[in-house]
Design a protein that fits this description.
Shape of chain B: globular
CATH class of chain B: Alpha Beta
Strand order of the largest sheet of chain B: 2-1-4-5-6-7-3
Helix content of chain B: 25-40%
Largest sheet of chain A: 6 strands, mixed
Number of domains of chain A: 2
Number of helices of chain A: 7
Order of helices and strands of chain B: HHEHEEEEHEE
Distance between the termini of chain B: 27 Å
Oligomer: heterodimer
CATH superfamily of chain B: Glutaredoxin
Number of helices of chain B: 4
Largest sheet of chain B: 7 strands, mixed
Order of helices and strands of chain A: EEHHEEHEEEEHEEEHHEEH
Radius of gyration of chain A: 22 Å
Radius of gyration of chain B: 15 Å
Number of strands of chain B: 7
CATH class of the largest domain in chain A: Alpha Beta
Number of domains of chain B: 1
Structural class of chain B: alpha/beta
Strand content of chain B: 15-25%
Distance between the termini of chain A: 45 Å
CATH architecture of the largest domain in chain A: 2-Layer Sandwich
Shape of chain A: elongated
Chain lengths: 291, 163
């Protein structure tokens, strides 16, 4: 016989309330603290939730969505001070409702002492034959990160590996200027106001120069139409592979390539939160195998 | 684009006119110049939250400003506004997000016409202004050389084509 869920035998959702004895959208005569239990569970797995009050409001709904995003977006979980890879594949709608799978997964996380994290990974650039970090590349200040490490979102690591492979095929070299960007420059200390919804801030973008022999294809090279054939061909390859090139933007940004997430969507917002938190809280970042 | 350049030219003309009437000899810009600081002026750098090009421009500029040290001074020029604190007469084409580099005692200044999207540009200018060796490849990132004259009497900085 299955163990009853601590979140009740119903699908908790927005509008539910312990005080009102409303769960699953209906008033029920039985006693319980199902919403409170849910909120405590979310906090226990380190999903941000500011108030535990037994009311399933927009904050709790957002927290449930963030947990559901973690379930399906990537396999990384924090366990004590380390990072583990969860082998269970879950397909989960990110809808903010505590359906049976969400409830059982939350229970499993509690049992396993898992905590939420983002999908940042480190790639050892020394293992990339046709890509290197440039002199202006800033190594992230983080306990996990070494000098040669390039930090990106796991979901966008293929941008790096594909670019490296295609660069080799086109006999050019890529010099990286940046990948993941920390959202931390205080406006008061900035010369100009930083953008807050860049693909760099979630680890989905790189800036690089395509070096073809002695020619550095840079912004002015492209503006003058003097880019080399190797650069033109590599860019074509990467666009064909599904990546976005900044040279196609209305304000061209030729060193920029990304794997775009809608900057106004939930997925962007959740990834932004978890990946930036990984840096600010110095949470572990795994080294991704490039084999 | 032509209209925009015309508007910028008009704005700069108005600015020049305003500067001619103001006391510009003790502006923050003039003080930084007199102190021998390297000066960076961003031109019409309107913020944009989701524009990747702006985001990259802002990041590299702010990163450079954070690390450049006290011998560098940073200013923003809005060509549509009269700002007597930044008395610059630009006689060169400077589209939005251009960056001007000037320093007293150097043979020339530099103007990068548009957003700087590569840190190598700042590296090049910094090495030139600080008299350091410039690796051969960095010359490919060098901005346009401009001629800079400061009118000691009015404090107006005149920026023209060529060294």
């Amino acid at each position: 016989m299955a163990t009853p869920s601590p979140f009740g035998p119903f699908e908790l959702k927005r509008g539910d309330s312990d005080k009102q004895q409303t769960w699953g959208g209906h008033k029920r005569p039985n006693a319980g603290n199902h919403v409170t239990t849910l909120q405590e569970a979310l906090v226990a797995v380190d999903i941000p939730l500011s108030i535990i009050d037994g009311e399933f409001g927009p904050g709790t709904e957002q927290a449930v969505k963030m947990f559901q995003w973690c379930l399906t977006a990537h396999p990384y979980r924090r366990f004590n001070q380390a990072l583990v890879t969860d082998t269970r594949n879950v397909t989960q709608a990110v809808n903010g409702r505590v359906d049976s799978q969400t409830a059982s997964e939350l229970e499993r996380w509690l049992d396993q002492s898992y905590a939420s994290t983002g999908d940042l990974v480190r790639l050892d650039s020394a293992l990339l034959d046709h890509m290197e970090v440039g002199d202006g590349f800033r190594v992230l200040s983080h306990a996990s990160v070494r000098d040669n490490d390039v930090v990106v979102a796991s979901a966008a690591a293929d941008l790096i590996t594909t670019a490296n492979t295609k660069a080799g095929e086109r006999s050019v070299q890529l010099v990286l200027n940046q990948a993941f960007r920390v959202n931390g420059v205080p406006v008061s200390g900035a010369v100009v106001t930083p953008a807050t919804r860049s693909q760099h801030l979630i680890g989905h973008a790189i800036d690089c120069n395509i070096v073809d022999g002695n020619n550095w294809n840079n912004s002015r090279t492209f503006a003058a139409g003097r880019q080399t054939d190797g650069a033109t061909n590599l860019i074509s390859d990467l666009k064909t592979a599904g990546y976005r090139w900044g040279g196609d933007f209305s304000n061209p940004d030729t060193p920029h390539f990304d794997k775009r997430l809608n900057p106004y969507g939930d997925a962007y917002g959740f990834k932004f939160f978890f990946n930036q938190r990984t840096i600010t809280n110095n949470l572990p970042i795994p080294l991704k195998n490039l084999e | 684009m032509a209209l925009l350049r015309s508007l910028i030219t008009l704005g700069l003309a108005l600015l020049t006119s305003a500067c001619a009437q103001a006391d510009t000899t003790h502006t923050p810009l003039a003080e930084a110049w007199s102190a021998g600081k390297a000066i960076v002026v961003t031109i019409d750098a309107t913020p944009s939250d989701t524009d990747e090009t702006y985001g990259d421009f802002a990041y590299y500029l702010n990163d450079f400003a954070t690390n450049a040290g006290d011998d560098w001074a940073f200013f923003e020029l809005d060509s549509q506004q009269t700002n007597p604190d930044i008395p610059i007469e630009l006689n060169v084409t400077a589209p939005p997000y251009s960056v001007l580099f000037i320093k007293a005692g150097t043979p020339q200044g530099y103007l990068y016409p548009g957003p700087i999207l590569e840190p190598q540009v700042y590296d090049f200018v910094q090495r030139r202004f600080e008299g350091k060796e410039v690796p051969e490849y960095l010359y490919q990132f060098g901005p346009d050389e401009v001629r800079v004259e400061m009118d000691e009497e009015s404090g107006l900085f005149k920026v023209g084509v060529g060294p």
